[in-house]
Amino acid sequence: MELWFTEHQTEGFGITARIRRALHSETTPYQRLDVLETEAFGTMLVLDGMVMTTERDEFVYHEMIVHPALVTHPAPRRVLVVGGGDGGAVREVLKHPAVKEVVLVEVDRAVVEASRRYLPSIAGALDDPRVRITIGDGFEHIARAEAAYDVILVDSTEPVGPAVRLFEAGFYAGIKKALRPEGLFVAQTDNPWFKPALVQKTFAAIAGTFPLARLYVANIPTYPSGLWTFTLGSLRHDPLAVPPERIPDLDTRYYTPAIHRAAFALPRFVERLLADGFAAGGGTALASGAPAGGEGGR
User: Across-strand partners of 216?
Assistant: First the structure.
Protein backbone atom coordinates (compact mmCIF):
# COMPACT_ATOMS: atom_id res chain seq x y z
CA MET A 1 0.00 0.00 0.00
CA GLU A 2 1.29 3.46 -0.91
CA LEU A 3 1.09 6.31 1.60
CA TRP A 4 0.84 9.92 0.40
CA PHE A 5 0.80 13.26 2.17
CA THR A 6 -1.08 16.15 0.55
CA GLU A 7 -0.90 19.78 1.56
CA HIS A 8 -4.02 21.58 0.36
CA GLN A 9 -2.45 24.93 -0.41
CA THR A 10 -5.75 26.39 -1.64
CA GLU A 11 -9.25 24.99 -1.98
CA GLY A 12 -8.40 23.87 -5.50
CA PHE A 13 -4.66 23.20 -5.44
CA GLY A 14 -2.11 21.28 -3.43
CA ILE A 15 1.11 19.28 -3.52
CA THR A 16 1.47 15.58 -2.81
CA ALA A 17 4.47 13.57 -1.69
CA ARG A 18 4.79 9.84 -1.25
CA ILE A 19 5.95 9.01 2.24
CA ARG A 20 7.92 6.02 3.44
CA ARG A 21 6.78 6.38 7.04
CA ALA A 22 5.60 8.80 9.68
CA LEU A 23 8.43 9.47 12.11
CA HIS A 24 6.57 11.57 14.67
CA SER A 25 3.13 13.05 15.30
CA GLU A 26 1.82 15.12 18.20
CA THR A 27 -0.62 17.86 19.04
CA THR A 28 1.21 20.59 20.92
CA PRO A 29 -0.49 23.42 22.84
CA TYR A 30 -0.16 25.48 19.64
CA GLN A 31 -0.47 23.21 16.61
CA ARG A 32 -0.37 19.74 15.07
CA LEU A 33 3.22 18.69 14.43
CA ASP A 34 4.22 15.87 12.09
CA VAL A 35 7.59 14.64 10.87
CA LEU A 36 7.44 12.53 7.72
CA GLU A 37 10.04 10.59 5.76
CA THR A 38 9.33 11.31 2.10
CA GLU A 39 10.81 9.71 -1.00
CA ALA A 40 11.39 12.94 -2.93
CA PHE A 41 12.38 15.46 -0.26
CA GLY A 42 13.75 13.44 2.65
CA THR A 43 12.56 14.26 6.15
CA MET A 44 9.73 16.80 6.14
CA LEU A 45 8.47 18.93 9.04
CA VAL A 46 4.74 19.68 8.82
CA LEU A 47 2.76 22.05 11.07
CA ASP A 48 -1.04 22.09 10.89
CA GLY A 49 -0.88 20.31 7.55
CA MET A 50 1.56 22.83 6.00
CA VAL A 51 5.09 21.95 4.91
CA MET A 52 7.55 23.98 6.97
CA THR A 53 10.84 22.54 5.77
CA THR A 54 12.40 19.50 4.13
CA GLU A 55 15.91 18.13 4.07
CA ARG A 56 16.21 18.57 0.32
CA ASP A 57 15.16 22.19 -0.28
CA GLU A 58 15.49 23.85 3.15
CA PHE A 59 18.75 25.53 2.20
CA VAL A 60 17.01 27.89 -0.21
CA TYR A 61 14.64 29.35 2.37
CA HIS A 62 17.17 29.55 5.17
CA GLU A 63 19.93 31.09 3.07
CA MET A 64 17.59 33.65 1.54
CA ILE A 65 15.94 34.82 4.75
CA VAL A 66 19.39 35.38 6.28
CA HIS A 67 22.17 36.37 3.91
CA PRO A 68 20.70 39.35 2.02
CA ALA A 69 20.20 41.09 5.37
CA LEU A 70 23.44 40.10 7.07
CA VAL A 71 25.50 41.00 4.02
CA THR A 72 23.76 44.40 3.83
CA HIS A 73 24.39 45.30 7.47
CA PRO A 74 28.01 46.45 7.94
CA ALA A 75 28.44 44.85 11.39
CA PRO A 76 25.66 42.40 12.37
CA ARG A 77 26.79 41.51 15.88
CA ARG A 78 23.48 40.70 17.60
CA VAL A 79 20.72 38.95 15.66
CA LEU A 80 17.20 37.96 16.66
CA VAL A 81 15.33 35.10 14.97
CA VAL A 82 11.58 35.05 15.68
CA GLY A 83 10.16 31.60 15.00
CA GLY A 84 12.51 29.32 13.14
CA GLY A 85 12.58 26.62 15.79
CA ASP A 86 14.01 24.18 13.24
CA GLY A 87 17.33 26.03 13.54
CA GLY A 88 18.02 26.57 9.84
CA ALA A 89 18.07 30.36 9.99
CA VAL A 90 20.34 30.23 13.05
CA ARG A 91 22.73 27.94 11.17
CA GLU A 92 23.02 30.45 8.34
CA VAL A 93 23.41 33.46 10.66
CA LEU A 94 26.37 31.79 12.34
CA LYS A 95 28.25 31.69 9.02
CA HIS A 96 28.90 35.42 9.47
CA PRO A 97 32.00 35.94 11.66
CA ALA A 98 30.82 39.35 12.91
CA VAL A 99 27.92 37.71 14.77
CA LYS A 100 28.51 37.46 18.52
CA GLU A 101 25.04 36.36 19.65
CA VAL A 102 21.91 34.90 18.08
CA VAL A 103 18.70 34.98 20.10
CA LEU A 104 16.06 32.50 18.93
CA VAL A 105 12.51 33.08 20.19
CA GLU A 106 10.23 30.15 19.37
CA VAL A 107 6.75 29.85 20.84
CA ASP A 108 6.53 26.04 20.56
CA ARG A 109 9.20 24.02 22.36
CA ALA A 110 8.08 20.88 20.53
CA VAL A 111 9.31 22.30 17.20
CA VAL A 112 12.81 22.72 18.61
CA GLU A 113 12.81 19.26 20.16
CA ALA A 114 11.48 17.50 17.06
CA SER A 115 13.96 19.32 14.81
CA ARG A 116 16.88 18.39 17.02
CA ARG A 117 15.85 14.76 16.93
CA TYR A 118 14.79 14.32 13.29
CA LEU A 119 16.50 17.16 11.40
CA PRO A 120 20.00 17.39 12.89
CA SER A 121 21.48 18.75 9.64
CA ILE A 122 19.22 21.79 10.10
CA ALA A 123 19.03 22.07 13.89
CA GLY A 124 22.60 21.20 14.80
CA ALA A 125 23.65 24.85 15.06
CA LEU A 126 21.26 25.39 17.98
CA ASP A 127 23.95 23.97 20.27
CA ASP A 128 26.48 26.64 19.30
CA PRO A 129 27.57 28.69 22.35
CA ARG A 130 26.63 31.93 20.56
CA VAL A 131 22.96 30.85 20.47
CA ARG A 132 20.45 31.71 23.18
CA ILE A 133 17.07 29.97 22.90
CA THR A 134 13.97 31.48 24.48
CA ILE A 135 10.68 29.61 24.43
CA GLY A 136 8.06 32.34 24.26
CA ASP A 137 5.97 34.73 22.22
CA GLY A 138 7.96 36.60 19.57
CA PHE A 139 5.46 39.47 19.46
CA GLU A 140 5.88 40.09 23.19
CA HIS A 141 9.67 39.72 23.01
CA ILE A 142 9.81 42.41 20.33
CA ALA A 143 7.48 44.67 22.33
CA ARG A 144 9.88 44.58 25.29
CA ALA A 145 13.05 45.19 23.26
CA GLU A 146 14.49 48.63 22.47
CA ALA A 147 17.55 49.25 20.30
CA ALA A 148 18.65 45.71 21.13
CA TYR A 149 19.42 44.07 17.77
CA ASP A 150 21.33 44.77 14.58
CA VAL A 151 19.24 42.38 12.48
CA ILE A 152 15.86 40.80 13.15
CA LEU A 153 14.62 37.83 11.09
CA VAL A 154 10.95 36.87 11.27
CA ASP A 155 10.94 33.19 10.34
CA SER A 156 7.26 32.57 10.97
CA THR A 157 4.63 30.20 9.65
CA GLU A 158 1.85 31.56 7.47
CA PRO A 159 -0.52 33.95 9.30
CA VAL A 160 -2.58 31.37 11.16
CA GLY A 161 -2.73 30.54 14.85
CA PRO A 162 0.06 32.05 16.96
CA ALA A 163 1.70 33.64 13.87
CA VAL A 164 -1.19 35.97 13.01
CA ARG A 165 0.21 38.89 15.04
CA LEU A 166 3.53 38.61 13.21
CA PHE A 167 1.94 40.03 10.06
CA GLU A 168 0.37 43.12 11.62
CA ALA A 169 1.54 46.72 11.17
CA GLY A 170 1.98 47.14 14.92
CA PHE A 171 4.49 44.32 14.95
CA TYR A 172 6.64 46.08 12.35
CA ALA A 173 6.57 49.27 14.42
CA GLY A 174 7.82 47.21 17.37
CA ILE A 175 10.61 45.76 15.23
CA LYS A 176 11.70 49.25 14.22
CA LYS A 177 11.96 50.19 17.90
CA ALA A 178 13.87 47.01 18.72
CA LEU A 179 16.54 47.68 16.09
CA ARG A 180 19.74 49.63 16.59
CA PRO A 181 20.21 52.79 14.45
CA GLU A 182 21.69 50.93 11.46
CA GLY A 183 19.37 47.97 11.84
CA LEU A 184 17.27 46.08 9.35
CA PHE A 185 14.91 43.15 9.34
CA VAL A 186 13.54 40.50 7.00
CA ALA A 187 10.24 38.61 7.13
CA GLN A 188 9.01 35.79 4.97
CA THR A 189 5.94 37.22 3.24
CA ASP A 190 4.32 34.27 1.43
CA ASN A 191 3.68 33.94 -2.30
CA PRO A 192 2.16 36.24 -4.94
CA TRP A 193 0.21 33.54 -6.80
CA PHE A 194 -2.14 32.39 -4.06
CA LYS A 195 -1.72 35.18 -1.48
CA PRO A 196 -1.42 38.40 -3.52
CA ALA A 197 -3.45 40.44 -1.03
CA LEU A 198 -1.22 39.31 1.84
CA VAL A 199 1.97 40.14 -0.07
CA GLN A 200 0.54 43.52 -1.02
CA LYS A 201 -0.70 44.38 2.46
CA THR A 202 2.47 43.25 4.21
CA PHE A 203 4.81 45.13 1.89
CA ALA A 204 2.73 48.29 2.22
CA ALA A 205 2.82 48.00 6.02
CA ILE A 206 6.60 47.52 6.09
CA ALA A 207 7.22 50.30 3.58
CA GLY A 208 5.00 52.56 5.66
CA THR A 209 7.09 51.82 8.75
CA PHE A 210 10.69 51.80 7.48
CA PRO A 211 12.63 54.40 5.48
CA LEU A 212 13.45 51.70 2.94
CA ALA A 213 11.62 48.51 1.96
CA ARG A 214 12.60 45.87 -0.56
CA LEU A 215 10.74 42.74 -1.64
CA TYR A 216 12.73 39.86 -3.12
CA VAL A 217 12.01 36.31 -4.27
CA ALA A 218 13.39 32.77 -4.24
CA ASN A 219 12.35 29.41 -5.65
CA ILE A 220 11.32 26.89 -2.97
CA PRO A 221 9.72 23.77 -4.52
CA THR A 222 7.71 22.58 -1.52
CA TYR A 223 6.17 25.97 -0.70
CA PRO A 224 2.89 27.07 -2.32
CA SER A 225 3.52 27.92 -6.01
CA GLY A 226 7.31 27.59 -5.57
CA LEU A 227 7.76 31.36 -5.85
CA TRP A 228 8.32 32.77 -2.37
CA THR A 229 8.73 36.35 -1.23
CA PHE A 230 10.70 37.99 1.53
CA THR A 231 10.45 41.63 2.55
CA LEU A 232 13.36 43.61 3.96
CA GLY A 233 12.81 46.77 5.99
CA SER A 234 15.86 48.93 6.70
CA LEU A 235 16.60 51.99 8.79
CA ARG A 236 19.60 52.97 6.68
CA HIS A 237 21.26 50.43 4.40
CA ASP A 238 20.03 49.33 0.97
CA PRO A 239 20.80 45.76 -0.15
CA LEU A 240 21.06 46.99 -3.75
CA ALA A 241 23.85 49.39 -2.76
CA VAL A 242 26.13 46.65 -1.42
CA PRO A 243 29.30 46.47 -3.57
CA PRO A 244 29.69 42.94 -5.01
CA GLU A 245 33.26 42.74 -3.71
CA ARG A 246 31.95 43.19 -0.15
CA ILE A 247 29.82 40.05 -0.36
CA PRO A 248 31.79 37.22 1.25
CA ASP A 249 32.22 33.78 -0.27
CA LEU A 250 29.87 31.95 2.09
CA ASP A 251 29.33 28.21 2.39
CA THR A 252 25.99 28.24 0.54
CA ARG A 253 24.10 26.21 -2.06
CA TYR A 254 21.67 28.85 -3.37
CA TYR A 255 22.77 32.32 -2.32
CA THR A 256 25.62 33.93 -4.28
CA PRO A 257 26.76 37.52 -4.91
CA ALA A 258 24.87 37.44 -8.21
CA ILE A 259 21.72 36.09 -6.53
CA HIS A 260 21.99 38.85 -3.91
CA ARG A 261 21.10 41.43 -6.53
CA ALA A 262 19.08 39.27 -8.92
CA ALA A 263 16.58 38.26 -6.21
CA PHE A 264 15.33 41.85 -6.08
CA ALA A 265 14.51 41.87 -9.82
CA LEU A 266 10.79 41.15 -9.60
CA PRO A 267 8.44 39.68 -12.19
CA ARG A 268 6.28 42.43 -13.66
CA PHE A 269 3.08 41.07 -12.16
CA VAL A 270 4.66 41.30 -8.70
CA GLU A 271 5.84 44.86 -9.37
CA ARG A 272 2.32 45.78 -10.39
CA LEU A 273 0.91 44.08 -7.32
CA LEU A 274 3.04 46.26 -5.07
CA ALA A 275 2.35 49.40 -7.11
CA ASP A 276 -1.41 48.79 -6.92
CA GLY A 277 -1.15 48.39 -3.16
CA PHE A 278 0.55 51.75 -2.84
CA ALA A 279 -1.90 53.42 -5.20
CA ALA A 280 -4.81 52.15 -3.11
CA GLY A 281 -3.16 53.57 -0.01
CA GLY A 282 -2.23 56.88 -1.59
CA GLY A 283 1.50 56.19 -1.56
CA THR A 284 4.23 55.65 -4.14
CA ALA A 285 5.70 52.22 -4.79
CA LEU A 286 9.44 51.62 -4.74
CA ALA A 287 11.07 50.55 -7.96
CA SER A 288 12.54 47.07 -7.73
CA GLY A 289 15.78 47.69 -9.60
CA ALA A 290 17.19 51.08 -8.65
CA PRO A 291 18.32 51.99 -5.12
CA ALA A 292 15.53 53.52 -3.10
CA GLY A 293 15.98 55.55 0.03
CA GLY A 294 19.72 55.05 0.59
CA GLU A 295 21.15 56.39 3.79
CA GLY A 296 18.06 57.12 5.79
CA GLY A 297 15.28 58.23 3.44
CA ARG A 298 12.92 56.90 0.81
Answer: 230
What's the pLDDT tens digit per position in 149-158? 999 999 985 5
Sheet with 212-219, strands from edge to edge, namely: 131-135, 101-106, 78-83, 149-155, 179-188, 227-234, 212-219
**Claim: this prediction has a pTM higher than 0.85:** yes
* Structural Rg of the chain based on CA atoms: 18
Cβ atoms of 216 and 222 closer than 8 Å: no
Per residue, what are the HEC states of the chain?
Answer: CCEEEEEEEECCEEEEEEEEEEEEEEECCCCEEEEEEECCCEEEEEECCEEEEECCCHHHHHHHHHHHHHHHCCCCCEEEEEECCCCHHHHHHCCCCCCCEEEEEECCHHHHHHHHHHCHHHHHHHHCCCEEEEECCHHHHHHHCCCCEEEEEEECCCCCHHHHHHHCHHHHHHHHHHEEEEEEEEEECCCCCCCHHHHHHHHHHHHCCCCEEEEEEEECCCCCCCEEEEEEEECCCCHHHCCHHHCCCCCCCCCCHHHHHHCCCCCHHHHHHHHHHHHHHCCCCCCCCCCCCCCCCC
Instruction: From 230, 210, 212, select the one nearest 220 (Cα to Cα).
Output: 230
Dihedrals φ, ψ of 101, to 5°? -150, 140
Q: pLDDT tens for residues 21-34?
A: 999 999 999 999 99
Measured CA to CA in angstroms, residue 174 lies from 22, 77, 80, 171, 209 at distances of 39, 20, 13, 5, 10
Q: Domains in the chain, ordered, with CATH?
A: 3-54 (2.30.140.10), 58-281 (3.40.50.150)
| Residue burial 55-64, b: 16+ Cβ < 10 Å; e: rest | bebbbbbbbb
Write out the catalytic residue numbers: 155
